[in-house]
Amino acid sequence: MINLLLFSLVVGIISAIIIVPFGSKENGEAAFNRIGALSGAVILIGLFTFLIYYLTNLDRNWTSLWAMLLAATILGIIFATGKERSIKVVLFLAALSVSAFILSAPLFNADQKYEAVEMDQQVEIKAFDETKTPASVPPQFARNKMKKAFGQVPNTSYYELGHLQIQKVDGEFVYIAPVEFSGFFKWWNAKTTPGYFTMSATDSADNPKFVKTEMSYTPSSFFGKQVERHMRMAKPELIFYGDVQLEIDDEGKPHYIRSYGNFITARNGFDVQGIVMVDPASGELNQYALSEVPEFVDGAVSPEAVSLQNSYFGKYVHGFWNSIVGKKDVKLPSDEGTEANVSPVFDENGHMFYFTDFTSPKEEVDSMLGYALTDGRTGKAIYYTGNLEESYMDSQGTLQIIEKKFIEKKWTGEMPVLYNFYGEASWLTPVLDSNGFLQNYFIVSAANPEISVYANSPNEALRLYKTALQRGGSTVDGSSGAPEAKVEVGVVRVYKERAGDFTIVSILGDDGRNYIVSTEAVPLSIYIQEGDHLAITYYETGEQFLPVKLMKNMTIE
User: Fold this and answer.
1) What is the per-residue pLDDT across 456-482, written as a single tens digit (0 to 9) for each?
2) Whole-angstrom Cα distance, residue 238 to residue 226?
């Protein structure tokens, strides 16, 4: 607070000196009480500056004063005469030049923006391990369940559910939502919030759990207890971008974080550099560069910053004017993400990335030009072009298919994310009813939208999708991280089903387990009959039908 008062006082003094004239218009003698005018101007301008910076939490870099400086020099010219006016005209021209530079920065710094976020390029992401369960519970559904569990909160009428976000806590993918104050007088009476809700992001049957932990510094607190203002008062010079986020460590302790960085040019653009972290109970504050961020923090780079980086990468590939006229190679990031137009996803190691697909700037085109994954801890991104010989459907096209598929029930999709399922670029999308409750999971091929399935769980949908791909004639690549195993079994039952140019062979072994193989992978499997003795190499995926890698029919070979 002292820092802000001193800042406001200095701004008031400098502005007053510029605005208040030095002498009278007639004989150079004081025609008014200049000391009184200066004092009044310092008080008024200082108070105005204090209120603006206190209410907006604006950074206190000198460049943030460009508009005030310009206004002060204009008023200085109006009130001044003679040589004093000439001097203040020079000050005005200098302030005008600074203002013009700041305001025109977006016209000239497009190349610097693109260079700051330029992404490595690859063709496709790694195939998804079907033994894992993707974090696919939609946030709207999780939020609905948390609201219904709000009765667990003491003094419920004081509070409301805060911002929902996904993260990894103690090895589990969960949704986190803090309990926030529902207004000023509720904050005045309660002083602290009682805790936060947590719910599985992979199991839709999980029920929300309320974790008790008192928090004083929150987004919904007021005055010095508002966490954004607390950060600004402690770090007046930092450039913040994006909202504060709640991060939970592996012991269940909450922390509020916010991304900070640098402007690209003047006061335009943003390049993330690190985070500020606040203990919401004590207010203890720490600043970390991205390379020093604690391990439990998944989203050090705010989703708003990632969304901004995606827009730079898509728009400014050939500079600013090309993004307005011509639009050669321009691609627009999707707005279908769950957080600031991006969707958090996790890899097999539990590392968080922000997913975004890019589409053409042409209207009524639902073809995807590529997609990006941005590391949530470092901000580094990879752009995937996809198979250039195929045309991929974008996320909007996926949502339209779901809407048409369930048009009578009025169900809609939410949070479409592109995966590599069995070597096929595929959209996985949770489907919700009109009340926001989860109904099923829908998977559709991005290259062949006619291949689609839906089921009550992601893993069941994956199993059906594998069969649908085989029926559609697509090659199903091994994508399991499951260990290989070998077995010799006798055939108790066998079932053969034509799937395009190949046949799917389902086998019940005398060990009581089921195996599935395509004649594309093992051509001689077409001859399998009951009573045959087989030597099988398969993947121990835990599925009901275990995928076969290699097979030898020892009865006929």
Assistant:
1) 888 888 878 877 776 655 555 555 556
2) 17
